[in-house]
C-alpha cells in the first residue's frame, strides 16, 4: 500500500486544488510591482520580484472557470517550487493541509488515466467539497507558464553536497580527563580491556606490552607522549592501535569512547601553539556538544615520535620492508567496525554509522504501538 502524501489545499475561483506540500513554499499578497513579460501570453500575467528574485506570476482563473473576472488581483499568490525553479500562482485562499494516498484519488483523464492539469479527484470529508490534484508537470507545459530558476539554490545545493563529501568520521575519546579525537580511517583497531603485561623496558611512557593476534604491541601512555600533565596510572581500560608506515603497530591507552562524529576537516579550530610541550602532535580542535572540545591528534607526527618508534622497534624488531608494505596494505583494506552492546553484542561497519552521541535529555514522544522507538529529538 502506498504511503500518505501531504498536500496543501488552495482555492481558485471556487475550485479546490491539492498541491504537493513539498512544492508549496509560501503564500504572499498580490505584488505591487508586477511587470508584463515581453512574451506574455496564456496564463502568464507578468513577473514580480520577491526578496530580490524574479518570480513569474501565473493565473489559472481563465482555465478553471469561464466567465470569471480575471482582471482583478487575487488576495494571495502561492509560491510553488518545481524542477529546480519556482513561480507564483494566483489563488484566492489557502484552505487546508491534508494527507492522502494516491489510491484515494479518482483518475479523471482520458480512458480513466491520470493525465492533464487536474488529472484526479479526491472527495473531501465534506461530500460537497471536491479536491482536484494539480499536476505541476502538466502546468509547466502550458503556454506562457514560466518557472524562474534559482541559481543561488543550485549553488547552495552543490556546496552542501561538496561539504557532505568532505565529511570524515572521527573517533572522540577521553584520556586523563581530556577529550581527544582522531580520523577513524587511520585507526587499526580498538582493544577493550587489553591484557597488559609488565615490560622489561617499562617507563612513564609505556604501561607495558600486550599481544594482539600474536603481535606484541606496546601500550603507550598518550598523555606522557604528548607531554601533558596527568595522574600516574599503571594501565588503561582501552587501547587504540595505530599502524605506522613501516608496518609496526603501537597502542595508546585511553579511558572511554565518547562519540563518533562526522565533520568537515575544514571546520576544525587551530590548535593552540602555546603552553604545549609538543604542539606539533595536535592538528586542531573539534567543537563538541554543550561547549566541550576535543584535541585532534596528528597521527603521522605521533607515530614519528622517538619514544613511539623505539618501543615498536623493540617489540616488533623482525618486521621486514616487504612485510611492512604488506601489513600496511592489509591495514588499509581492513574495514573498521564498531562493536557495541544493546544489550546483545553487535558489530557494524563504521562507514554505515553517521554519528554516535549521548541520548538527548528531551524527546518528543510518539503515539504509536512500536516499543523500539523512544521518541523524536
Automatic annotation (TrEMBL):
Q: Name one Pfam family in it.
A: CheW
**SUPFAM superfamilies found in the cross-reference section:** CheW-like
- The CheW-like domain sits at 4-145, 167-308
* PROSITE patterns named among the record's database cross-references: CHEW
User: Would you say which domain of life the source belongs to?
Assistant: Bacteria
Name one cellular component (GO) term: cytosol
One of its GO biological process terms is: signal transduction
Report the protein name in the record: Chemotaxis protein CheW
Amino acid at each position: 500500500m502506498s504511503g500518505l502524501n501531504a498536500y496543501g489545499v488552495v482555492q481558485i475561483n471556487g475550485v479546490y486544488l491539492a498541491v504537493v506540500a513539498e512544492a508549496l513554499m509560501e503564500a504572499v499578497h498580490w505584488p505591487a510591482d508586477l511587470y508584463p513579460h515581453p512574451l506574455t501570453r496564456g496564463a502568464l500575467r507578468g513577473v514580480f520580484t520577491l526578496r530580490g528574485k524574479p518570480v513569474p506570476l501565473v493565473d489559472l482563473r481563465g482555465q478553471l472557470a469561464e466567465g470569471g473576472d480575471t482582471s482583478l488581483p487575487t488576495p494571495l499568490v502561492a509560491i510553488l517550487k518545481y524542477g529546480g525553479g519556482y513561480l507564483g500562482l494566483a489563488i484566492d485562499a489557502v484552505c487546508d493541509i491534508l494527507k492522502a494516498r494516491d489510491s484515494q484519488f479518482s483518475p479523471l483523464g482520458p480512458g480513466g488515466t491520470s493525465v492533464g492539469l487536474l488529472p484526479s479527484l479526491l472527495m473531501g470529508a465534506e461530500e460537497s467539497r471536491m479536491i482536484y490534484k494539480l499536476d505541476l508537470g502538466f502546468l509547466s507545459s502550458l503556454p506562457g507558464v514560466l518557472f524562474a530558476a534559482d541559481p543561488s539554490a543550485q549553488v547552495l545545493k552543490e556546496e552542501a553536497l561538496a561539504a557532505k563529501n568532505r565529511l570524515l568520521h572521527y573517533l572522540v575519546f577521553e584520556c586523563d580527563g581530556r577529550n581527544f579525537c582522531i580520523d577513524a580511517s587511520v585507526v587499526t583497531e580498538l582493544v577493550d580491556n587489553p591484557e597488559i603485561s609488565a615490560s622489561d623496558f617499562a617507563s612513564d611512557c609505556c604501561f607495558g606490552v600486550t599481544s594482539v593476534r600474536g603481535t606484541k604491541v606496546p601500550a603507550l601512555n598518550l598523555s606522557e607522549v604528548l607531554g601533558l600533565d596527568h595522574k600516574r596510572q599503571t594501565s588503561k581500560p582501552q587501547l587504540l592501535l595505530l599502524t605506522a608506515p613501516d608496518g609496526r603497530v603501537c597502542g595508546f591507552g585511553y579511558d572511554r569512547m565518547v562519540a563518533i562524529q562526522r565533520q568537515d576537516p575544514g571546520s576544525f579550530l587551530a590548535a593552540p601553539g602555546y603552553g604545549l610541550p609538543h604542539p606539533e602532535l595536535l592538528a586542531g580542535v573539534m567543537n563538541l556538544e554543550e561547549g566541550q572540545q576535543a584535541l585532534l591528534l596528528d597521527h603521522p607526527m605521533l607515530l614519528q615520535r622517538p619514544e613511539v618508534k623505539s618501543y615498536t622497534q623493540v617489540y616488533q624488531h623482525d618486521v621486514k620492508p616487504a612485510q611492512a608494505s604488506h601489513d600496511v596494505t592489509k591495514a588499509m583494506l581492513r574495514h573498521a567496525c564498531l562493536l557495541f552492546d544493546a544489550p546483545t553484542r553487535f558489530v557494524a561497519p563504521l562507514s554505515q554509522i553517521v554519528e554516535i552521541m549521548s541520548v538527548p535529555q528531551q524527546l518528543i514522544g510518539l503515539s504509536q504501538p512500536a516499543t523500539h522507538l523512544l521518541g523524536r529529538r
